[in-house]
Amino acid sequence: MPKILLAVTNVSKYPNVQRATGLWLGEAVHFADEMQKAGYEIDYVSPKGGYTPLDPHSLQADQMTELDWQYYENATFLNKLSTTLAADSINPSDYEAIYYAGGHGVMWDFAEDKNLQKIASAIYANGGVVSAVCHGVVGLLNIKDEQGNYLINNTKVTGFSNTEEIAVGLDKVVPFLTEDVLIAKGANYVKEADWSVFAVSDNRIVTGQNPASGAAVAKNVLKLLK
Questions:
Q1: FRET label pair with 79: which of 50, 69, 167, 222, CA 20 to 30 Å apart?
Q2: Is 179 considered catalytic here?
């Protein structure tokens, strides 16, 4: 069975405020569900391996869909999130694509993780797909291609917008604004209206704007893999 690598955070709390964070559950669920329906096996990876915390805000009733509840009550899925593979243990040649799920926790561990960068760079060099959603796109910031150029330079990407960050009241809490740093790395940043489902594919890089866009990213990844 072909395999996909799904990257999640190890960060459980904002370093600078008394507030819990972690993986935004739906961003993993809706991507994984589409890929599994298409016959792909999912492995879960994090920078340190082991447990990935769930952002409690992603478990609020107004954020959870029926599909999210199905996964939240699935012990096999939850065990995978509790026992993620460590990034330094991964053989990139085992995977056809990598997907970075979001949640604000990733703002503190994805962008600078050299092991995740090496994995994504190798998957891309092998002809695979690099994908991400929402804040997860910060995992793409420092990935370089075989020529040493930033992978997202001159590439159309999306991700959590400045206006969405301001709307949730965390623009002064995060270490940087996702939209701003994507542009600073040379990406061609695009977005739709706040909170709308939106994903964009360019040069085997697929990105989604916000928590609602995980399934849309998966569908674009599947088109490329076929």
A1: 222
A2: no
